[in-house]
Amino acid sequence: MRMTATGTLVFMALAFFALRPYEAMHPGFGYAIAFAEAAMVGGLADWFAVTALFRRPLGLPIPHTAIIPVNKDRIADTMAAFLRAYFLTPQVVARRLYAFNLAAGVGGFLANPQGGSKSRLREGAASLVGDVLQSLDQDRLGGLAKAGLRKQLEQVDLGPLMGQMLTHAIADRRHMPVLEGMIGWVGRTLESNEHFVREIIHDRANVVLRWTGLDERLASGVLDGIYRLFAEVLVQPEHPMRDKVEEGLVQLAQDMLNDPKTQAKVEEVKVEILANPAMTAWIDAMWERYRAALLRSFRDPDAALSGGIGESIGQLGKALAEDKQLQILVNRFARRTLAGIVSRYGDEIVRLVSETVKRWDAVTVTDRIEGAVGRDLQFIRINGTLVGGLVGLAIHAVGGLF
């Protein structure tokens, strides 16, 4: 289109210079020359106007040219203010959502995710979300997610929470499998490290015991007694050791619920664990697993909505699509939620738009805007050439009457 507009201007210039020698031969040549001359003026004026929007014409430092590059930051602020004032307001969002039955649309999609365009919609949306998730700065995104998780863990009052969990577990006898598992684990650990126990007893025995070999018999007796005790605790539900352990657990639960000193100790342990590099590595690994699972889910939306989860989602979608009262409640909640988000975070959203445009360099802004509207701007040049010619023709005709 730029070549067409420029070609039209060049054609008018050639016509003007070609017809000038024949101006006196016939009055009609005067009209043609007037048209070509005025068309050149109109085409050049519009070329200057269009070019001045994006760059300096012929590279000359003419005032009020290269308007978009020079005023890039002001354009960004104006664009953000326009979005904030006319789009991202609670009234506009609520009014737009009143005309849209969000609950029914979501319900129909969830009830029949395989159907026609809805399937393509789901696949497209899932693919888009997956692409966005994969394209984000993983260091910054992961850092934000892990920092948020760590902050939530730091804010948890762990002592009372663990006390409540332990109290309910003891009341429902759910702690017994854990207790038996711990006893079994201690027994197996001791058995696999039996030689260390024997070495300790041997090192601490006196010379007489080592010389007579009684240290080995003593070590075997100690180990056999411990093994027998663990076996009896495991097979005898009413063993006194179990009662002692359970009494200790009950007391520990009460202390974590009510004793400030115990709660403070639990909090200290929690802080030490969170500061441990192993905990940091665990959070990193957990985030990577969660991110990978999200990507797999978005890349394969059919698998994500299959099985029991898919059936539950389908039932929820059917209820949303058919229950009018539920739709009213959901739509009302959606309107209030989105209006609240816009009211609370609208400034941050438009600031993101403004800062993004400001970070673009002048060449990028110019190329993107010119690429979006450049074809119409070249039509302005063509129209300016033709309109200028017609105006020149009209002026010449009116001048001939006097």
Briefly say what this structure is:
The protein is mainly alpha-helical and 402 residues long. The chain contains 20 helices and no strands.
Q: What would you say this structure looks like, in words?
A:
There is one protein chain. This protein has 20 helices and no strands. The chain is an all-alpha fold and 402 residues long. Helix 1 (2-19) packs antiparallel against helix 2 (27-54), helix 1 (2-19) packs parallel to helix 20 (362-400) and helix 11 crosses helix 13. It is elongated and about 140 Å long.
What is the distance, rounded to the nearest whole angstrom, between the alpha carbons of the first and last residues? 40 Å
N-to-C SSE string, H for helix and E for strand = HHHHHHHHHHHHHHHHHHHH
**Which stretches of 5+ consecutive residues score pLDDT under 50?**
none
- Helical fraction equals over 70%
* DSSP strand content: under 5%
What's the number of extended β-strand segments?
0
Count of helix runs: 20
Biggest sheet layout: none
Structural class by SSE content: mainly alpha
What's the alpha carbon Rg, rounded to whole Å?
41 Å
Gross morphology is elongated
List the quaternary state of the chains: single chain
State mean pLDDT (0 to 100 scale).
76
What are the salient characteristics of this protein?
402 residues; mainly alpha; 20 helices; elongated
Q: What is the topology?
A:
Layout: H1 2-19, H2 27-54, H3 67-70, H4 72-86, H5 90-98, H6 102-111, H7 116-135, H8 138-155, H9 158-171, H10 175-192, H11 194-204, H12 207-212, H13 214-235, H14 240-258, H15 260-275, H16 277-299, H17 301-304, H18 307-322, H19 324-359, H20 362-400
